[in-house]
Design goal:
The chain is of the alpha/beta class. The protein contains 14 helices and 5 strands. It has a 5-stranded parallel beta sheet, with helices on both faces. Strand 2, helix 4 and strand 3 form a beta-alpha-beta unit. Helix 10 packs across helix 12 and helix 13 packs antiparallel against helix 14.
């Protein structure tokens, strides 16, 4: 992703604090997936550890020893923490207390290059309660020139005690005209349709276009229209959705029901010809979103989808 315009204000404020020698010891970068917060964090960390950053912009030079080590993934003063492995080799679904304790011990040591030490926790909202409590001590008693960078798609899942000790940088959806101009500059075909499909999120719009998501969106609407008209089999639709990006298809399904509610409110022809009234459509919209979230849970995905589509039909 090229540096998007909605990063500019966050970047300038952070660099102004750096110029004053007033950087916080912990940053929390949060907001929806697709707005580039991880790219922003990477760019900032590169500039922070660079030996010859641009004095005006804070951007890394790209050729000093630190930059070369960062590019190789071997800078000794940068540590990244994410999901670890259990003893049986299976990836954990959360960040656990032992990982935070190891991180704190690492940060208690001196910087090998005599500058900043940086720790990245991503996704920070995956820390369990014990891990979050263990991190508090490091946040409350930070070592000099130590920077913690927390990234979270769902910051509300972090304890308030963690959030209150971080400088929060929150990425919001840009204005539609700014997002559309950026997508067009990125060469995204049918940018307006892609942006609408992604709920105004330009990063998702670009990525989904590259992944063929707009075709998937058309298929979802076709499937819902067929079921509403009594054509096709629910089981066939469930199989097709489960075979290819089921969570994304449920996003488009919820979006389709919202579009139908809007069409009825505007007294336009319903795009899917559903027999449900406005209240039922609203309930189905909420159910589609709940089902999307439940796909990562213990319940069988096929049964979840069968129940949802049976409501539609």
């Amino acid at each position: 992703m090229s540096t998007p315009p909605w990063h500019a204000e966050h970047w300038s404020r952070l660099q102004a604090r750096r110029a004053r020698g007033a950087l916080p010891h912990a940053l929390l970068l949060c907001g929806p997936t697709g707005l580039g917060k991880r790219a922003f964090a990477q760019r900032f960390i590169q500039g922070l550890l660079c030996e010859q950053p641009d004095g005006n912009t804070g951007v890394a030079c790209g050729h000093c020893r630190a930059c070369l080590l960062l590019a190789a993934g071997s800078h000794p003063d940068l540590v990244s923490l994410t999901y670890g492995l259990r003893k049986d080799g299976v990836q954990r679904s959360e960040i656990v207390v032992e990982q935070i304790r190891d991180l704190s011990a690492r940060l208690a040591m001196s910087s090998q290059f005599g500058g900043w030490q940086v720790a990245v926790i991503d996704p920070a909202d995956a820390m369990n309660a014990a891990a979050a409590n263990a991190l508090l001590k490091t946040l409350e008693e930070p070592a000099a020139q130590t920077m913690l960078v927390l990234l979270a798609d769902a910051p509300w899942q972090l304890p308030q005690t963690i959030r209150s000790r971080c400088q929060r940088i929150e990425f919001h959806l840009p204005a539609p005209d700014q997002a559309l101009a950026w997508l067009q500059a990125e060469g995204v075909a049918d940018a307006a349709t892609a942006l609408q499909a992604a709920g105004g999120n330009p990063g998702l719009a670009r990525d989904w276009t590259a992944q063929g998501a707009l075709d998937r969106r058309r298929e979802v609407r076709k499937d819902l229209a067929a079921l509403a008209a009594g054509r096709g089999q629910t089981a066939d639709v469930v199989k097709r959705w489960l075979d290819d990006e089921p969570a994304q298809r449920l996003w488009f399904a919820a979006q389709a029901s919202a579009d139908e509610m809007k069409a009825r409110a505007d007294r336009q022809a319903p795009p899917l010809s559903s027999a449900m009234d406005a209240d039922m459509l609203a309930q189905w919209y909420a159910a589609a979103n709940r089902t999307r979230q439940a796909l990562s849970g213990p319940l069988r995905d096929d049964l979840l989808l069968l129940e949802l589509l049976a409501m539609w039909r």
